[in-house]
Design a protein that fits this description.
The protein is an alpha/beta fold. The protein has two domains: 149 residues, no CATH class; 246 residues, Metallo-dependent phosphatases (Purple Acid Phosphatase, chain A, domain 2). The chain is 41% helix and 19% strand. It contains nine helices and 14 strands. Helix 1 packs across helix 3, helix 3 runs antiparallel to helix 4 and helix 5 runs parallel beside helix 6.
Length: 410
């Protein structure tokens, strides 16, 4: 109980910090807008622009309130586009404001560091110092770039589904399971920016892979107002001889939909595992499938799961949170499948290093990882998901459908 309370307090403080950051970012732009309006010579234009800016300010406040608790703004059709534009603006513009302040801080340091070494101020009419010109352009680029990038990621990369195929060599894999094919989907987040038709398209792409079994590793929805049953009905289109299996993600917990998700999976002929296991047979060989609800960061990982691990057959763990991997390897689970990170949704490469927001929550960002296990290796694959969260955009992180082929080691 204490750890859950601690998590709640931590989550609340984090939430308040994000809201405060958004407020400060928007205040920066609103203040800049009113400053610019004061420079307009025409009084009638000043009044008109002030009314427009106040209207935009009110809309921003309404949008934030709607996303948090109102849920009254239209989510579909032409009326939803102002909401989309606002979501593409809020976080990127806040980042832009922070970048501008950072560059202005650098300029202030530069000015004060070299002021004593510079000659007196230039005379009127003389060219502007190159340093000042550089910082002015840098501020403009810093403010615009995050917003432009977000719009590009929304229009171009958000729904550019890609199939990734990977082979994973497992120790002690029965020869009958050599070449066993797994299709994985994750982080659907059906709703505003992931309509049912796009979920259906991802399912159809997965079906064409001809997998022997299909897994969906959590986050079917974002919040309680999203169409959970519609999502699961679309996922029921997945076809595989050994069926479709899943686990809950953190957003099912937030929406208090963990048990409802399991019931809907059963209704549509699939199975969602909640701290339970199932032994499956394929071509005379057995494989143990384990599924858990989202494992919270500030609580012990995989409590009670050790009793589900089999020593007489390979184990596959479905766990939305990739941070369970360390504990899974300790318990002797050969393969873990996760999601949760979205690959960070945005990834940039700077000085030969890939930077991703997901690094703040895990070192298992996307792709294949391994850890030592009983003289062999335990593997984790982190799916990048197909949906989005917070910002409806992806940059450098394609939405992913995975085909995993198990190979007999050696």
């Amino acid at each position: 109980m204490g750890s859950r309370t601690g998590f709640t307090v931590f989550g609340f403080l984090f939430f308040i910090s994000i809201l405060a950051l958004l407020f400060l970012g928007q205040w920066f732009w609103i203040h800049a807008g009113f400053t610019g309006i004061r420079r307009v010579k025409s009084a009638s234009w000043r009044r008109l622009l002030k009314v427009a800016l106040w209207a935009v300010t009110g809309w921003l406040a309404l949008t934030i309130a709607d996303r948090l608790f109102l849920h009254i703004l239209p989510r579909h059709g032409p009326a939803s586009w102002p909401l989309t534009a606002t979501q593409l603006w809020l976080i990127p513009s806040t980042l832009g404001a922070l970048l501008i302040k950072f560059i202005q801080g650098l300029e202030w340091i530069w000015e004060h560091a070299i002021a004593k070494r510079e000659p007196a101020m230039q005379e009127p009419g003389e060219p502007e110092p190159a340093r000042r010109t550089f910082f002015r352009y840098a501020v403009g680029i810093a403010g615009l770039f995050p917003v432009v990038a977000a719009v590009y990621g929304f229009a171009r990369e958000r729904l550019d589904f890609r199939v990734r195929q990977i082979e994973i060599p497992l120790a002690n894999l029965p020869s009958a399971l050599d070449g066993f094919r797994i299709a994985q989907l994750s982080d659907i987040h059906i709703g505003d920016f992931m309509p049912a038709g796009q979920v259906r398209r991802a399912v159809e792409m997965a079906d064409r892979l001809g997998a022997d079994i299909a897994f969906v590793t959590g986050d079917f929805i974002t919040g309680s107002h999203d169409p959970l049953e519609t999502c699961i009905a679309e996922l029921a289109g997945l076809k595989a001889p050994l069926g479709v299996w899943g686990c809950n993600g953190n957003h099912e917990i937030y929406a208090e939909a963990e048990e409802i998700s399991r019931e809907l999976f059963a209704k549509y002929g699939m199975r969602l595992l909640r701290q339970e296991s199932a032994a499956l047979s394929w071509k005379g060989a057995a494989i143990n499938l384990i599924g858990v609800d989202y494992q919270r960061q500030r609580e012990p990982m995989l409590v009670g799961v050790e009793s589900l691990v089999r020593r007489d057959m390979p184990n596959i763990l479905l766990s939305h949170n990739p941070n369970t991997f360390n504990r899974a390897a300790e318990m002797g689970i050969e393969l873990s499948l996760a999601g949760h990170t979205h690959g960070g949704q945005v990834q940039v490469e700077i000085l030969d290093h890939r930077l991703s927001p997901a690094r703040f929550i895990t070192r298992f960002i996307s792709g294949l990882y391994s850890l030592p296990m009983n003289g062999g290796k335990s593997f984790l694959y982190v799916n990048r998901g197909i949906g989005t969260i917070a910002i409806p955009t992806r940059l450098g992180v394609d939405p992913e459908i995975t085909l995993i082929t198990l190979k007999r080691q050696g």
